[in-house]
């Protein structure tokens, strides 16, 4: 049995300890945002945030997640208000939508760690889009980073 927090809720999975997190989320918790793509972690469609890091859930056995905090696309925001989701819509990134949840989660984790990521950090994202939305994805990353940096900036007080 593996115990962890998923989207703020304490859960216990009574599954084989080698069950990939992806299948626990999709089949046992009915959280279907993380997609099953390649089975080898190469596409990133199954990306979730585990303890603040973007992780490919198809590669993580439940046995490695005892006590972990997992955030899925369903738990990123209640109403698509996360800056990455807002930027994704504003830049009209969506094509087929298959890679979308994984990309959004990977970008959210990246921007949380570095609101103004380097080109190398962005290029290191493991996610892939077969629809050719890469330029819009890059614009969405820049827009969301700017939104997150502005939100973290101190609010100026009254001038004296």
Automatic annotation (TrEMBL):
UniProt keyword Metal-binding present: yes
* Keywords, in A-Z order: 2Fe-2S, Iron, Iron-sulfur, Metal-binding, Oxidoreductase
Stored SUPFAM superfamilies: 2Fe-2S ferredoxin-like, CO dehydrogenase ISP C-domain like
**InterPro entries, sorted:** 2Fe-2S-bd, 2Fe-2S-bd_dom_sf, 2Fe-2S_ferredoxin-like_sf, 2Fe-2S_ferredoxin-type, 2Fe2S_fd_BS, Beta-grasp_dom_sf, Diverse_Oxidoreductases
Record's PROSITE patterns?
A: 2FE2S_FER_1, 2FE2S_FER_2
Q: Which residues form the 2Fe-2S ferredoxin-type domain?
A: 1-76
Q: Which domain of life is it from?
A: Bacteria
Q: Name one Pfam family in it.
A: Fer2_2
The protein's name: (2Fe-2S)-binding protein
């Amino acid at each position: 049995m593996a115990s962890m927090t998923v989207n703020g809720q304490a859960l216990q999975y009574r599954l084989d300890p080698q069950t990939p997190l992806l299948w626990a989320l999709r089949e046992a918790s009915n959280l279907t945002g993380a997609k099953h793509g390649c089975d080898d972690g190469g596409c990133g469609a199954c990306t979730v945030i585990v303890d603040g890091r973007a992780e490919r859930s198809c590669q993580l056995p439940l046995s490695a997640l005892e006590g972990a905090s997992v955030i899925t696309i369903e738990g990123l925001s209640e109403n698509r208000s996360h800056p990455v989701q807002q930027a994704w819509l504003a830049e009209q990134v969506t094509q087929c939508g298959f890679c979308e949840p994984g990309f959004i989660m990977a970008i959210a984790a990246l921007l949380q760690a570095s609101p103004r990521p380097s080109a190398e950090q962005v290029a290191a994202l493991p996610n892939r889009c077969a629809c050719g939305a890469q330029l819009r994805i890059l614009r969405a990353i820049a827009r969301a980073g700017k939104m997150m940096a502005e939100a973290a900036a101190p609010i100026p007080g009254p001038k004296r």
